[in-house]
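cache lookup: miss for this entity combination. No prior model stored, computing from scratch. Input as submitted by user K.M.:
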Amino acid sequence: DGGITQSPKYLFRKEGQNVTLSCEQNLNHDAMYWYRQDPGQGLRLIYYSQIVNDFQKGDIAEGYSVSREKKESFPLTVTSAQKNPTAFYLCASRLGPESEELFFGEGSRLTVL
Amino acid sequence: QQQVKQSPQSLIVQKGGISIINCAYENTAFDYFPWYQQFPGKGPALLIAIRPDVSEKKEGRFTISFNKSAKQFSLHIMDSQPGDSATYFCAARNSGNTPLVFGKGTRLSVIA
């Protein structure tokens, strides 16, 4: 089955540690996105990538980093510079400019202890 | 600056009733307006979408009403069921390859 796989589903980390969230898709989609979801805040865009080896900052990129070395993979690193990292992180993908629909993974919940 | 304003934040509807969620936008360059449905612990999924060249789109019990002059669009869920209980997000996007901008979401509870 085609889809988007995010891992881990739950993650705990101590303050000051970096953590990397995995996002893999087998839909052959060109574009991939990372959103952060907080209660009452909706979905806020962190980073997105429209092609391999290229990515752009979203609205809340500070304290995060990404890479896009392969079409199917778009990992997100939450660095120690992110002041409030506890959140639900959603990865999404879209086929390309000719397709409107955004497909989401099931999310990763990060808790900083 | 919030580009898409969604209301209400939460909504409780009796089974069989009509659920209505509203969104407003400022950017007149937006030309695609989807609604996403999210169940607890899951990622959102596209429910229904509309473009500004039509005023209404219906898919089953779900209808989008679009008012271009008022820069508003709304989701109507007819004959609401407990299985419709979820969080609903409106969104909007410019033409081209720009990312979706989401509203803050509405938590819908349908009670029997």
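stored under new cache key. Chain A touches chain B at residues 4, 31, 33, 35, 40-45, 48, 50, 58, 90, 92, 96-97, 100-102, 104-107 (CB under 8 Å).
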